[in-house]
Design goal:
By secondary structure, this protein is an alpha+beta fold. It is built from two helices and five strands; from the N terminus they run βββββαα. It has a three-stranded mixed beta sheet. Strands 2-3 form a two-stranded antiparallel sheet. 16% of the residues are buried. The model has no long low-confidence stretch (mean pLDDT 88).
């Protein structure tokens, strides 16, 4: 379980979710639309008289998707926001690039274990510098 705190001011949020069509991506084969996108930036934040680096993730999910696809896309993009930047090659995983005919609306054991492993790694991220 990931602890979440909802904040009233968007400037304080580390993850911001928008029902907004993501910008087109430029690929070698041309421009491509996507149902969702997560954009990571790193910002300097002042906390307790010290400056530290913090992540800001803007999650965009296309609003015109039918409900199950919108939910699956949001879940996938939130996986990115919580640290799962890679993709799975298993269609039953939330983090699969392609989920097949039915949208995946439940986090798989593999997704959960990957997230737990990532969260267990020691890092100095967010420490004052």
């Amino acid at each position: 379980m990931i602890p979440l705190t909802r904040v009233a001011e968007i400037e304080r949020a580390h993850v911001m979710v928008f029902r907004k069509r993501p910008p087109l991506r430029h690929l070698p084969s041309g421009w491509r639309a996507s149902n969702g996108r997560s954009l990571l930036t790193i910002v300097e934040a002042r906390r307790k008289k010290a400056t530290q680096l913090e992540p800001k993730v803007k999650v965009m999910v296309s609003p015109e998707l039918r409900a199950p696809v919108l939910q699956a896309t949001a879940l996938h993009e939130l996986g990115h926001a919580f640290g799962l930047w890679g993709h799975s090659d298993h269609a039953g995983d939330v983090m699969a690039v392609s989920q097949g005919a039915l949208p995946v609306l439940t986090v798989s054991k593999r997704d959960r274990l990957t997230l737990e492993w990532i969260r267990s790694q020691s890092t100095n991220f967010g420490q004052p510098h």
